Amino acid sequence: MNATPESRPASDPPPAAAPGDAEQVRRGAVKGVRLLVALSGGSEDAALVRTAHRLAERDGVRWRAIHVDNGRDDSERRLMLEKDFAMVHRLGGETRVLQGKDRAAELHDYAREHRIATLLVGCSRPSGWRVWRRTLAEQLLRRGGTFDLVVVAEARQRPRFRPRHAWQPLRWREPVVAVLSILGAVAVAGALDAWLELANLSLVFLAAVLASATLAGTRSAMLSAALGFLAFNFFFTQPRFSLAIVEHGQLLTVVFFLLVAVVVGQLAGSGRRRLLALRSSREQTHRLLTYARALSAATDRDQVGDIGVTSLERWLGVPVVLLDRDEEGADLTIRHAAPPGMTLDAGALTAAGWSWQHRQPSGRGTENLPDQQWRLLPLVEQGRVLGIVALKLAVRETPPGPDQEALIEALSSQLTMALERTRLVGELGAARLSEENERLRSALLSSVSHDLRTPLASIIGSASSLRELEPQLSRQDRHELLEGILSESERLNRYIQNLLDMTRLGHGGLRIERDWISLDDLVAAALQRLGASLEGVEIERDWPDDLPLLHVHPALIEQALVNVIDNAARFSPPGGRVGIHARLDAAQRQLEVSVTDQGPGIAPEQREAVFDMFFTGGEGDRSRYGTGLGLAICRGMLGAHGGGIDAKPGPGGIGTNIVMHLPLPADEGGDRDDD
Question: pTM of the full predicted structure?
Answer without folding.
Answer: 0.51
